[in-house]
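Input for the complex:
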Amino acid sequence: MRRLLTGLWAGLALLAAPVLALDVVATSPSMGALVRAVAPQAQLTVLAGPDRDLHALQAKPSMIRALRSADLLVAVGAELEMGWLPAASSSAANPDILPGREGYFEAAAQVPLLDVGGPADRAMGDVHPAGNPHVDLDPVRMAQVAEALGARMARLHPGNAASYRANARRFAKAVEQRLPQWQAELADAPGAVLYHRDAIYLLERFEVPLLGTIEPVPGVPPSGRDLRALAGKLRGGEGIIIHAPYQSPKGPRKLGRELGWPVETLPLSPPVSADGDGYLRHIDRWVSAVASA
Amino acid sequence: MNQSVTRAALLGALLTPAAAVTAGDADIDALRAELEAMRSQYEGRIRALESRLSDAEQAADVARQAAGADALSLPMTAPRVLRSQSQASGQVPAGSRSAGLFDAVTSGTAFNPQISVILDGNYYQDDTEDGNGAALVGEALQAGGGGHAHDHGAGGHDHGDGGHAHAVAEPGFNLRSAELYFSATVDPYFDAASYITISGDGDVTLEEAYFQTRSLPYGLRVKGGKFLSDFGYANNQHPHQWDFVDQNLPYLNLLGFHGIQDTGVQLTWLPELPVYTLLGAEALQGDQEVFGATLGDTDQTELNLGDTDSGPRLFTAFAKVAPEIGRNHALQIGVSYAHATQHQAVHEHTHAVHEHEHDEHDHGHDEHEHEHEHEAEHAHADEHAHDEHHDDMHDHGDGITEELHRAGLAGDADLWGIDLVYKYDAPGAYGQGDATFQTEYLRSSKDLTVRSSAHPERIGSNRTFTTDGLYAQATYGFLPKWKAGLRYDVLGLTNEVSGGRSDSFGSSERWTANVTWSLSEFSQLRAQYAYNDILVGEGDHGEEREQFSAFYLQFLMSLGSHGAHEF
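Predicted:
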């Protein structure tokens, strides 16, 4: 009996042996890119592609399976994934990655948020008084998030702590280096119309005016009248209209025709396979689109 | 890190006397200088270490605050503290909505549970004579009878559930329910939730109230309390989660309006495998309306059925497997089994007896036809039988009287289920292009013994009643925010009695089509049409069917916090 127990404990000890590479689940490709930048050797699963709305996803068994064995869950946070992530992570029977544990990392909790407060009144649409969650389009905030992520990974996997910190630092440096160039490109940008307030962190970082949103309030598609009112307000000016691939192109195109402005479809996240450089290229794409107005 | 600081400090302290002892006269100045250099060097390093330590502690505090506040309340909220930061930094973006004018100062909800209320109401019409189509679909004929065995209570209704509200739509306006949902993380060890529905008539029903563990190792979770069983796929869904206004025929008839909703414990295991595999088992009290139903005390005595056994009387086991088929697709296949250790039924039938024949008690002339009624007719006969007593006589006025016989049967029951669900998440806006397909097959088999009968020769003989059913339904997002649904459901592909005698009955089926308009994530309007072909009886004159159309207009309003739905 004693031997059996010893054997059992030895087996358990093996199971609990220090990890060689972290098993990380990222909710979006942006978060996946950060994970690759900080921990290139980590085993990574990205739950959603850049062409899907992170707010409208549904919990799926494959997500639960990935979360079951994860050491770390990297979410954008601030209620962006709240329609599915709580269900998926609680079904995963993995206490390590639940909110409140070391294995739960929320990007939005690492940086100051915009749109915080405001009335918690759904007459204003799908509002989130906790703050606008789309922090992943601001490279500076993402650099801060990367450093926080590096620190978190170092705690989870001390054996590789130096490497995580150095990688995070390297990513932050790369953002710093690119920043003047982006700023120069966007210095004279006239502004952009977004479908949803999902790129405001980018616009705010580079001081590009947000000229309006296609949807009158969050989560509610525009009526013809909304679009006419918006067009009336913007007529004569310059700008660009940007929407995500999962947002209906009808409203943006109509507004674009009326104003004679370019309309761009840009994903909020880089491709699923992106790493730190991929993320920077993604920001390049956004910057040159906004600058092209 | 603490350790290295102490070590450095100790080293510094030790080096001072060591240097002093070895000091020679001539070298004193040089040594002193060296010592100074070392001291300052170590002090510098200690300072650096101290500052790194305090940085790390601060970072940990911030992380703990951010995570800790959330652990006990809403899991996904950003810390409130950030608000002052963003305001202080003065980074208000161009065009951002300014907070203040409409801002309400609230006391915060940090420790309150997540609360949501779902209002579910409809307008209903059908073209049956009595407008009772919504009730009829739940009373389709099945061998051995499903329909609410305990409603048979003779005279004194001593079974508590006798008058239970089943939210059956009546022609016109119906408020099916206001559903109150509370959930919270109790502590690091448990989550808990409760669902309470208040029907339009004001009846309050506790649908679910359970805890679930959150920190067991090895992929184990335990749930305890009153909950919807994870048997099958549709069983654990609340009515507002259904793609159709009403429940499918197999669930409605084989399990009842609430499905398997019972008090007990559940253990699930999600092993770490490359393919999602969930295994689970439940032990439940067995307070069921249909599957594993027991009768009231009066009936049990009158019909010689014996008392209700102590629980648990209902056990389930299920396995669900979901192969990986791409990021935007999901497929899950499940197998479920349930066993009720006790099932009781009362079967009623009437004999049309000519007055002059009655004294002879001649029931033998038409045995087959009698049996038909005997084993099946009660499913709806009971509606009219509440006040009838054993061997009641009804004078038809033309020399024919009707005699009601009640027989008591007791035994156990088994239920098998197979389910398959596929979902596609399309890139379109507001659910455009999303598609789902869902199908389940249920097979219920009740193994009963006749305990009492007006025909003594039947007592002790065995009857096995088997009824199965399946549904298949699909939805498709044909426009942003608009979804169409189509469902076919059938009950009684097999619908038979075997054992002491054998017999077989027909099936009931239905086609349903609907359109759902989700104006936002929080409101839905739905129009639904169904063509029903329900077998309500089978007797002397063959099958008795109700064929009718039923029409619903439904609204679903979701108030309060954003709920997260499971797969």
